[in-house]
Design the sequence.
């Protein structure tokens, strides 16, 4: 906006016979602006503000209920049927002031980003092409919040047993764990309650104790409490999947392992341009070092041997050597079986 004194000076220079271009050059403004100020005789134009729009509260409430809380439909009915000229942003403000609609939930608590503070785990479904078929898979991602290293693996289904196997594989690979692991309110680890009132299943508490961490559920509706993990899934969609093809699930997991532990771990991230693998070395003294050996998680199946010497596990048949047809105990690990 041109100051009032400057506008008057421009008009006086014009009256003294100075040309438009010379005035524009001396005042460092465009000739078009000079012409407009001269046409207004150097005065500041008076702009009249439109009167404040008033809409009856009862009408607003009735329309909001009729339109099932859809502000866009309320806007259409007001402008088209009632003939009220109102901006959409003004309408949404009035709806908030009347208490009819609510603002978006604010961000959850802010937690300091400290070395060794926490790790985060979550899963996300994807539809991807494996070979010639498009299948539904579950992506599982572990994220170290401070140093930003990740571990990624995909499963056809994700149960409590798969969760144990994944965390074992990821934490044993990195060799360290933070004191807490932030998760959502999933029944895979939670027994009851939500958020700070969540009670972790005793089985999962015993499992976490082996790796020297505790499960902590974020508050319901506050998924941004583990925003680093959520951002990781976005990166999977925008950086891992595009331009890659997969023969099968094993091939996908092989590529995911290299992408998460080699490429992403050695690539500068965010505005800080920190390299996760380098930052991880700095964070190690603040993390809990895992014991030299931790027994991998397994499931126990009791099976009978049929007349042909086979025992079935998950739809597959395994030959039991010998002539006796006795009961066997099968230990199912993440990628192999042991039969006793």
Sequence:
């Amino acid at each position: 906006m041109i100051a009032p004194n400057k506008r008057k000076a421009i008009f006086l220079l014009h009256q003294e016979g100075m040309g438009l271009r010379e005035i524009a050059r001396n005042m460092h403004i465009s000739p078009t602006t000079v012409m407009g100020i001269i046409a207004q005789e150097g005065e500041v134009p008076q702009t009249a503000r439109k009167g404040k729009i008033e809409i009856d509260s009862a009408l607003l409430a009735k329309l909001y209920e009729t339109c099932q809380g859809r502000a866009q439909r309320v806007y259409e009915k007001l402008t088209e049927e009632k003939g009220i000229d109102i901006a959409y942003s003004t309408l949404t403000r009035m709806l908030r002031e009347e208490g009819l609609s609510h603002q978006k939930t604010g961000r959850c608590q802010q937690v300091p980003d400290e070395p060794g503070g926490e790790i985060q785990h979550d899963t996300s479904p994807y539809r991807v092409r494996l070979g010639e078929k498009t299948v539904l898979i579950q992506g599982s991602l572990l994220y170290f919040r401070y140093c930003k290293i990740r571990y990624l693996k995909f499963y056809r289904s994700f149960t409590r047993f798969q969760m144990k196997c994944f965390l074992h594989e990821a934490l044993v690979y990195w060799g360290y764990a933070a004191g807490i692991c932030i998760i959502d309110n999933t029944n895979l680890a939670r027994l009851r309650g939500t958020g700070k009132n969540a009670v972790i299943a005793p089985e999962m508490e015993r499992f976490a104790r082996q790796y020297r961490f505790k499960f902590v559920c974020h508050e319901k509706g506050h998924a941004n409490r583990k925003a680093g993990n959520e951002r990781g899934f976005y990166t999977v969609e925008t950086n891992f999947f595009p331009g890659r093809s997969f023969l099968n699930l094993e091939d996908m997991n092989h590529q995911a392992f290299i992408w998460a532990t080699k490429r992403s771990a050695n690539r500068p991230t965010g505005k800080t341009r920190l390299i996760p693998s380098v930052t991880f070395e700095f964070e190690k003294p603040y993390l809990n070092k895992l014991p030299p050996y931790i027994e991998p998680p397994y499931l126990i199946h009791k099976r009978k041997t049929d007349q042909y010497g086979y025992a079935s596990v998950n739809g597959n048949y395994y030959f039991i050597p010998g002539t006796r047809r006795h009961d066997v105990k099968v230990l199912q690990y993440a990628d192999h079986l042991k039969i006793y």
User: Anything to note?
Assistant: DSSP finds eleven helices and 14 strands in the chain. Residues 4-39 form a domain with the Arc Repressor Mutant, subunit A fold (CATH 1.10.10). The chain has a mean pLDDT of 88. The CA atoms of residues 175 and 336 lie 22 Å apart.
